[in-house]
Each structure stands twice: as C-alpha cells, then as structure tokens.
Records
---
Amino acid sequence: MHAHPVEAAPAAGGPNASPGPRGGVRTSPLAEGLLEVEGVSTGYGSFRALFDVSLHVDEGEILAVIGANGAGKSTLLKTICGLLRTEDSTVRFDGRPIGTLPAHKRVGLGISLVPEGRLVFPSLTVHENLLVGGHSRRTGPWSVSKVRELFPLLDRLMDKQAAHLSGGEQQALAIGRGLMANPRLLLLDEVSLGLAPIVVTELYKAIPRIVAEGTTLIIVEQDIGQAVAVADRIVCLLEGRVVLQGRPDEVTREQISAAYFGI
Amino acid sequence: MAWLNDVIQGILLGGLYALFAAGLSLIFGVMRLVNLAHGDLSLLAAYAALLIVGPLDINPFLSIFLVVLLVAVFGYILQRGFLNFALEDDPMPTILATFGLSIVIQNLLLEVFSANSKGLDAGTIETQALKITDQISIGWFPLITLVTSVVVLFALQLYLNRTRMGRAFRATSDNQEAAQLMGIDNRHLYGLAMAIALGIVAIAGVFLGIRTTFNPSVGPARLIFAYEAVIIGGLGSVWGTLVGGMLLGVAQTIGAHLDPGWGVLAGHLLFLAVLVLRPRGLFAKQVQA
Ligand SMILES: Nc1ncnc2c1ncn2[C@@H]1O[C@H](COP(=O)(O)OP(=O)(O)OP(=O)(O)O)[C@@H](O)[C@H]1O
Ligand SMILES: [Mg+2]
C-alpha cells in the first residue's frame, strides 16, 4: 500500500542486536515480554482501524507509540486495555492470553489506561476520583498520599469537583487515578493534548518516578518530541500499520518523519 | 388551620412518593434507563406481600423485609438477564423493553390475582392518629411511612456518598467507559442499581398497599407520580426527590381540598409549572456529566 515502508527495527535477535540496559531488542526470541500484541486487526463495525499490528513491551520499559491523527494509536490502546476485544491469543499479558477479557478485569491483572481527553469524573471530587481509581486496586506502592506527592498541584484541590479543574490539573488527576490501581502496565493516551508546553514538561517530570516504582509504560503521542525523549523504544503507526520500530538512537528524525507522514 | 392540615397531610403523602421516585431517579442516573415498568414492579411487591402475609400469618409491616429481598434479587436478575442487553447509547430499546415488561406484569397479575381490588391489612395502626389540635391530626401510619422514607433515602444518600460501591455508582453515572477503566464491572453495577431501586420501590409498594387498595392496572399511575416527583425535585439529587415528592403531595391534597376531583390535576399542574420554569428541577445536581 505504501511505496516505501520504512523498516528500521532490527528483527528479534537480528545481527545488530545490542542488548541494552532495558530490553529494546529481545535477547532471546523465546522470551515473552510483559505485553505481546500479535497480528491484531480490529476496528469499529465494518471500519478497520488496525491492520496486523504486532508489538511487544518488556517489563520496566517505556514504549512510545507515535503517529498522526487517526493513525490508530488510541485504537491500539483500547485493544490492549480491553475496551475493544479481539481473539484471545492476539493480546498476551505476562504470558496469559487476554484478548477477550473485558477492560474491568484487565485492571485487576495490572493494565490501566489513562484515556485520551482525561475523562475524569466531573461530579466527583479530586479525592473521590482517586478513590474510584483504586476500585479494584492491586497491592502496590501507589496510594492517595503517594499521588499527592507525585503531583503536588493536586494537594490543595482534593475537595474540589474535578469539573472545575484546569486541563493540566485534570491530566495530573487522570494519571494519578490510573496509578491508584497499581498497574504493572500503564497506558498514557496523549498526555500533552491541548496543554501548554510548560504544563506538559511538568507532567512528564512524573514519568521517571512512575517507572522507578516498577511500572511499565506505553506513551501515545502525536507530539514526537516529548515522547521520544523519555522512551526506550519507539513504534510508529501509519494508517493502522506499524511502519517503524526501534530505539531512539537507532532511528533518525528523517525516518520518523517519513513514517509519520507516510512519505 | 385546615390548610395547615392539608400541608401536613401532603408532606406525609409526599414521603411515599419520594420512595417511589428514588429508584426511578437512581436507575436513570446510573444507566440512563427510563424504567416504564417501575410502577408495575411496585405492584408486584404489594402482591408478593399479599402472598406472604396469609400463609406466614404476619403483619404486612414485617413482610416488607422478605418482600424487599425477593424483589431486589428479582431486580438484579431482570437487569443482568434482560435489560442489560437492551442498554445502548440510544435510549429507545430500553424504553420499549420496559414498556413491554410493564404490560407483561399487568397481564400476569390480572391472570393470577384477577381485576378485583385487594388490600393489605396492617391492623388498628392504620386508623390511629395523633391529635394535635381539633383540626390537625397526624395518622400513625402516614407518619411511619414518612419516617421510613426519610431513613431509607438517608441510607441511600450515605451509601452513594461514602461507600466504595456508591462512588462507583456516581463514577459510572458521570462516565460509564471511564468507570470500566477503573476496574468497575458495569454489568454487575447495573444489576446492583436495579436491585437497590426495586428494593426501595418494594417498600413503597407495600406501604401504599396498606394505605389504599390496589389492582393490576394501577401501576402506570404510580409511575407518573414517581416521575413527577423526580422532575420537580431535579435529577440526581436524593433530597431533591424527597422535596419533589412532598411538593407533589401537598399540591394534591390542597387540590383535593378545593374539589375532590382536582387532587391529581393539581399535582400535574405543579409538575408542568416546574417543567416550564425550571426544566432541570428545583435541586438538580450542579455538575452534569
Ligand atoms: N468509535 C469509533 N467509531 C468509528 N470509527 C472510529 C472510532 N474511533 C476511532 N475511529 C476511527 O479509527 C481510526 C483510528 O482512530 P484512533 O482514534 O485510533 O486514532 P488516533 O491515532 O488515536 O488519532 P488521534 O491522534 O486523533 O487521537 C480513525 O480513522 C478514526 O476515525
Ligand atoms: Mg487518539
């Protein structure tokens, strides 16, 4: 379909596989990552949004998924978190097939999505939003007080209704709410959407601290800069297909823009 | 003084309307489902009480506990086994489904219990009253009804505000998809909501069954009163529903005082006035999802 598919990612265990500190390239073709997505094709009704998408994420890694408007990034995250269901074996988490599991059960396994547009609960207070985030929480490091430490800006807002928060405050709340479940894998969909750059920089400061607690991250962004800067590995989607994968030092900006715009 | 008596009687009656309305409001709030069978389901509870009090030889008041349990379990099964499948973004399928349910219940009751009016007999308490002045006396039974309503609504409010499941109800009401992302099983939650709603309306059904006689066709009229109380009070507010029920009750008793035939009409007029002047009700929840 595309004249020049860009394929920068070395195949698993390929010749130039250099085992990094955190596995970008798999050391063994048999080792399962924390998350394995294999040949997912899905969409909405008769409309197909993803075509044979495969990727993997290792424990402790930050994967950035980038792509233009409508590339299928959110659809991919919905497939991973269970808002969209597929065949069981096409999504595996910690070795377990979960493709048909509903979203609420995947939360219990340790997959949480911070959705595009935040979707905080407007009539609930900030504190209540966090408590609802912990509805089926696993045991783990995150608690209301820990989230308040992570995002000090939420501290004085605890009794305020979420509807009255600014965009940046809502995003911080949405991330904190997601952490309350103590996920092993946290999916962040367009954290930077509609926010001032300085606010985005503030929010991204939380990411190393989240990873330090042992959480694996998939970050979806349209804005390449922020995501690529923190990511261990990049996957680029174009019109529902994976067109580029690799570590940030392996791919050039030209390759990224080519994959992004499909030129 | 006679007017004051009307107001008092209306407030007492309004407690009962609020009990009818609370479940309707809860269901609509949590899953945007307009339950057209709500009134018929309250009747089902009254007939269930009728079946229980005979063989067990107990006062209808005591039967309430068992009836509430039965109807709540029925509500859960009804939701998970039937209504969940009709839930879509479009409200029409559930409107049709509950309309059908309403007709099925009416016909079933007609078949089993005939069209004759039945009543629940709670004994002398039904006629005893507290005499305040020559003109004002407060019946024990209406007073018990009102106290029960307030206690039940208070408990519901506490449940919604303070408990983990209560918060899940409110979160789901705000955003159903985001609630699932928090690990909330919405199908189960809808079942619970229906169980609670029908449990509450079962109490109302038995109380009204003690207060007046009933037959299989009176369900829809009860639905209308409940609906009016919800709209007058404003959606999403438990105390608004209580006030809405009381205002409706007062309007009806004052109307009936003017002319025995005007009671229900006066209630409808108040409802229309609120719809025109404050379409979102008097105490609507401030933040809407
Ligand atoms: N609920 C839906 N129903 C029908 N089509 C949808 C739906 N959601 C997304 N799509 C379509 O699926 C395709 C992929 O959408 P998706 O939301 O995954 O893109 P995206 O990469 O997240 O885009 P954006 O950067 O704008 O968020 C688009 O063509 C979109 O129009
Ligand atoms: Mg998106």
---
Amino acid sequence: MTNTTTTQQVNYNGMDDDAFRQMVHDWFVENYPEELRFPPERMHWDQCGDWYMTLAKKGWLAPGWPAEHGGMGLDANKLLIFMDVNESYGVGRTPDQGMTMVGPLLIQHGTEEQRAHYLPKILAGEHIWCQGYSEPGAGSDLANLSTSAVRDGDDYLVNGHKIWTTLAMDANQIFVLVRTDKEGKKQQGITFLLVPLDTPGITVRPIVNLGMHDEFAEVFFDDVRVPVANVVGGEHQGWGIAKALLGHERIFIGSPKFAILAMSRLKALADMAGLFADPLFVDRYTQLKMDIADLGAAYKRFVEVLKRGGHIGAEVSMLKIWNTETQQRVMDLMLDAAGEHGGVWGELETADGVARAAGDFIGARPTTIYGGSNEVQRNILAKAVLKLPS
Amino acid sequence: MEDISLQSKIDVLSEEQVLIQDSAVAFIAQDEELKRVRASRFTQPGYDKAVWQEMAESGWLGFLVPEEYEGVGLSFSELNLVLIQLGKGLSPVPFVSTAVAAARALVKGDNEALKKEKLPLLVAGEWTPALAWQEVRANLSEKASAVTCANDVLNGVKLFVPDAGGADAFIVSAATDTGTGLYLVDKDAAGISIEYEQRVDGGFYGHITFADTPVSDMVAAAGNGEGQGEAVLAAVLDETRVAVSAELLGVMTRALEISVDYIAQRVQFDKPIGSFQALQHKTVDLFILTEISRSVLLQAATVFDSDASAQERAIAASQVKARCSDAALTVGKDAIQLHGGIGYTDEANIGLYLKKAMYLSSWLGSASAHRARYAELTL
Ligand SMILES: Cc1cc2nc3c(=O)[nH]c(=O)nc-3n(C[C@H](O)[C@H](O)[C@H](O)COP(=O)(O)OP(=O)(O)OC[C@H]3O[C@@H](n4cnc5c(N)ncnc54)[C@H](O)[C@@H]3O)c2cc1C
C-alpha cells in the first residue's frame, strides 16, 4: 500500500482558533456520512471502514501524533478544539487502538524497523489493532496474567485466553501481554508481543455486552507461532511497556472527548423537552458543563507535558476518574430528563440528531471499569502520588 | 441465596404474613437462575400463562380485591411481601398492571354491576386488563385531554402502557364535557391499534391509538367526586406507585445480594476483592440505601392500609417512589461496577437488575418527578 499520508504538512497550530474550528467542522459536514452521526454503539468496520479511509487520506487519523510520523501534530489547544468539533458533530469512533496506543508506544519504545513497518500501515488503515491484556483471572490484577509464550527457535509458542478484547472481531492485529517467565515476581517475566490475528491457532469469540451489542470478544491462543522479532521493548520487559502504554490509554480516556459527546446529547434532549426553562435543570446542566470545561483545562496541562517530551506519571489517573464519573453523571441527568423513555431502547428525535437516553446510560457504565477501574486508579493515586502507607 | 435484609432481625411479621412471604420465596425460587426470565425477554406476551394461573391459585391476584368480589381483601402490608419477591425474581408477569392498577380502578370506580361481573374473573386469572392513562412523556397528570370520550366512543392516543401485549382489555381514562372518566375497552374492539416499544428489561410498552373505538362499559363516571374518574385514577396511581416501589425494593435487594456474594468469591491480587475496603464501604452504603428504602416502604404500606387522606397518601407514595427509584438505580449501577467486566455482559444476570430498575424507576414518575411532587405537597 502506498503511503497516502504525506500530503498534509499544514501548520494547523499556526491557525486562528476560530478558523481552525470552522475548517474542521466544514470538512466533517462535507465528508462525514449523515447517517452515521451519533451512532448508538461502537461502529463495526463494515460501517466505518470508508470513513476511516477518508480520514487516512486526509491525514487526520492521528490528530495528536507528531507531524514527522504522519499525524496532524496538533498542540493541546488545537487538539481540544478538534475533539470538541468531532464530538459535537457526532462523528463516531473508529477502531482507534492503533492511533491511541500502538503508534505512540512504537514512537517511544519501538525499534526503527518496527516503526517503519507498523506506523504507515496504521495510518493507511491497513492494520486495525485490538488490545489483548485482560484474562479471566487477570483484570485489575493484570500482572496475574497466565497466557504463556515459550521460546521455540526464532518463534514463541503462545497459549492462553484473553477476554474483553474490544472490537477483536474487526481487528487484524492484536497486542498482547504474555508470560515468558513463571519464576519471580508476577510483574517480571511478562513480555509485550505484536501478533497478526490471522495467525493459525487464534480463535475470536464475540461477547454480547449490556447494550446487546457484540463490542468485545474472547480471544483464544492455541499453539500460536509468533516471531521473536515481534517483541516490543525486550523479553520480560512487558510490564514496564504496558505501564507506559496505560499512561497513553488513561490520558485518552481522560480527555473530555466522551463527556462532550454525552453533553451534546443531553443538550439536544433538553432543548426538545423545553428543560432549559427550569432553573433547577439549568443549574444541574451547568454544573456538568463546567465540570467538563474544567477537565479541559486539566487535560491541556497534561497534554502540554507530552508535547514538551516530558513524562506523565501516575497522576494522569485523576483525569480518567474525573472524566468518566462526570460522563456518568451526565447520563444520570439524561436518564432523568428522558422520563419513561429512560426505560426503552428506542431513540427520541431532536432538532440536532437523536437522543438515546437508556442506551447511552448503559454505554457509560464500563468507562469506570476499563483502562484500570476507578477503584484501582484511586489506589494508584493514594500510593504513588500521595505516598500513603500501604 | 441468603437474605441479607434486616427484616428477620428487626421486623415482626404475623403468622399469615410469614406464610405469604414463604410461598412467594418458593415461587421465585423456581427460576432462581432466571432462565425463564431470559427466555421471555423480547417476546409477547412475555410471560407464561401457567405461571399466572399459579399466582391466581395462590390468591395473590385478589389481595387488593374485597371478599364480596371473590377477592382476599388483604392490604399493602401483605401485598408488598409478594411484590418484593417478584422484584427479586425479575418476574415478568403483569402483576402490578392487572392485580394492582386495573383491579383497584375497578374496585374504586362506581360501577357496581361491572365489579360483580369482572373482578371475580380477574382474581381467577381469567381476565387480564391493563390501565391506559398516560398521554405525555414525563407527565403525571390524572386529567385526560388527548384521549376523549363522546357518545361512548374513544379517540386519541395513550402512551407507555406496560403489559399491553398480553392484556384482554384496557381501562382508559378519557376527557368528557364533565371531566375525566374511566372506560373499559376490549382489546379487539374496533379502531384500536397498538404500537409496541421494546423496553430495556425485555418487556414492551404499548402506545395505543383509539379511532372511534366503542366503549364496552364505564368503570368510573366522569368527574372528580368520590368514585369518579379523576379521583379514582389519582388514588389508583398512588397505590400503583407503592406497588412498583415494592418491586424496586426487591430488585435492589437481590442485586445487592448477588454483588455481595460475587465480591466474596472473586479473587484478584490473591484475595477476595470483597476484602478491599473501597468495595466494603461501597457495598455497605448500598446496604444502607436498601434498608432506608425498606423502612420507607413499610411506612407507606401503613399509610395506605389506614384511613389516611388522599393528600397523605400522595405524600407517602411520592416519598417511597422517589426513594426506591433512586436507590434501585444506584444499587444497579454500583452492582455493575462491583462485578467489573463480567457485569457489562448480557450473559451475567446482574445487568438484568439494572435494566429492570431503569424501567420501573422511570415508570409512573422518576425520583426527581416525585421529589418535585413531594415538595409541592409539603412545602
Ligand atoms: C467495555 C469494556 C471494554 C474492554 N476492553 C478491553 C480491551 O480491549 N482489552 C483488554 O485487555 N481489556 C479490556 N477490558 C477489560 C478491563 O480492562 C477489565 O474489565 C478491568 O481491568 C477490570 O477487570 P475485571 O473485569 O476482571 O474486574 P475485577 O478486577 O474482578 O474487578 C471487579 C471489581 O473489583 C474492584 N477491585 C479490584 N481490585 C481492587 C482493589 N485492589 N481495590 C479496590 N477495588 C478493587 C474493581 O474496581 C471492580 O469494581 C474491557 C472491559 C470493558 C468493560
């Protein structure tokens, strides 16, 4: 596949904020399919593949990546505007683990060959990634994972069972944490591996979620052969790599992106139901709106650290906690505002797209579970940041 | 599953109440794993007629029907014991729709001949009417306006009628020149069309359109006096709110039991996760919420079993519906959180409790709607 992403070398950061906002908005209006605005659930590849490729061609798949690696290279301020327009217009989420996780990881910890091989394929939409960390016995206690990789010549033989793998059925690549050494502390002896999903011995079984959609899956490994060259960061070094990556995941989950989306649906519903005439509602609404605006301020602070090439530590957990819990409170208010509609799957027509109170309320449940549950994040903050005794 | 409520520790039940509760416990134990509940989801009428018959034989359908109409003539204090168990078992039967809302509309209405004819059939499980009163989303008004009745013919649309699919007839509130009356309409009467909307819990709401639909009888004459439509409907809706609150209490109680059980078993970091203080505190908070809810429900039953005024009943109904709606949603949400990933699957039963809570807490007025009503009635 040819590299389609080098055409964009626009200096977005030099643009005036309003002009940038307008440009992004106009381009979405022109290019994003109307029928996919505010999709009720994560879109599968057959729905969003075309859009992914449109973004890829425009060079807008990875707004936060440095321009030298094919991203838009947006600064924190522009990144927030980009997200805001994206979510307010109801542009659905594509399978983005390649952009949010694998790319940034390889940029930091990959070899030159790995970067050259994988990054263009992500940007071109050729590689769709999913994340294979969790196992039935290793959720919050991720280091307890037992999927094993045993050396056999230039390969590993991988055996085990991953679970809750988001959109594994649409992906063609998976990054996994495997156990390469059973001795010593749990955290030692873990290795980070990149695996093509079409490798013989891999079976993907979809799981139906609470919203009645097959958005995640189980992935079984049965004597799966993976070249040693697919290790990122060295054998037995996977825990450190995973932690670095979790930082990226948490700053992504900590971005106000999804809270803005939630708020835009609440506003549409409230407009329709005339709720802005009720001062009590306006107060509750505004409180949430300010919670999100304030999160934006904190998010910018963290993103600036990354842009400076600095390191973000455990403190990033505060963003994830604030964001996800605000999002859930937005959904509480939305459910309440919907009346009996909060008990049905169907949608309400509003002047700005549809509102699905019940579906969105259910969809907000796992935000406090995945990417490290909020209880675990609080443990981390207490120990690593406040240095409280254990 | 072990009962973790404070009932056995601090409440006193009569012998008869113990028997009623025991038989309700045994009834839901038949489907402890919720296999039947799951199989009935998204089907019509959504429940097994044999099960309904079993409930009729236990006398439950006649709890709130006086003996002169072949009912049992018991009170809310007994009824709630059954409803709590039905909530725990997520039983999809139209118990509240038929044996509370419709039955009470008939009992309280002023058509003596109709009561004599229909109530024995209802109590025997042979006739399942449902109440169609709501016209606007998130609106609690008992005054009909969108549906009218003139010359014994109905026109207009009623919204959010649970259990419409399995109903044999509807009791419909309608506006007339002299106020709101209640009318009986056969399900297969001319001009009725029903649009079904899937609820999150697997049941359906019916949205019912009447186009010159003939009324088969009058349940309560138009007006706001004793035994007349508007007053009857107001009283019946408050009774139904108490009944739904009892069901919600059952839902939250079992969701908590399942969660406590789960966190005691699930091991992470080489320990049961229930040993972590963060989860212990969260679970204790949920326990307090359910016992506060149970206390309010007991109090509401006492009010409804007394000769309290309509105003006192309205206050009690809003108090208990606000509390139980709020608490059931909170318990349902936190129960998912306590389960982690498995809680977000369709396969795990815990999610069914959240969905039932979402339905019942938004039906007949959400927590905030009832807080607003409580404020209006008490300030
Ligand atoms: C929608 C969704 C998508 C997901 N996508 C992916 C994916 O793509 N790839 C992937 O690898 N994984 C994915 N996951 C898995 C996710 O990371 C795990 O669910 C999460 O780590 C929690 O693990 P668990 O489900 O085993 O719950 P458990 O770890 O069993 O946790 C259950 C409860 O116990 C609490 N708990 C656990 N330990 C402690 C403690 N020490 N102190 C206090 N409380 C504690 C938790 O907070 C939670 O409330 C996804 C999960 C969901 C719900």
